Amino acid sequence: MKWENVAYGFTIFIALLFLEPYLDKMGISYWLKFLYIIVVVLCINFTLSKIKFLQKSVTKKVGWSTLITVMIFVAVLVNLIN
Questions:
Q1: How far is residue 9's CA from residue 24's CA, in Å, rounded to a whole number?
Q2: pTM
Q3: How far apart are CA 16 and CA 20, in angstroms?
Q4: Taking a C-beta distance cutoff of 8 angstroms, is the pair 3, 53 a contact?
């Protein structure tokens, strides 16, 4: 597992958590919202693949625990903001 995979999982989580409600407020249709989220995730994935630090290996235990911890932290922050 690489840090890139951890960052990619976090990117998907952030895109679904933040973009979907924002696009709902704008009144965008379901299919356009789905397409927009896919494009954002793919663009960020392309950018993440170019960062040298994220190419380093990490153990699965550390990678998964980091991903889960960051997801919980962001979810709590979103609930506090709303």
A1: 23
A2: 0.75
A3: 6
A4: yes
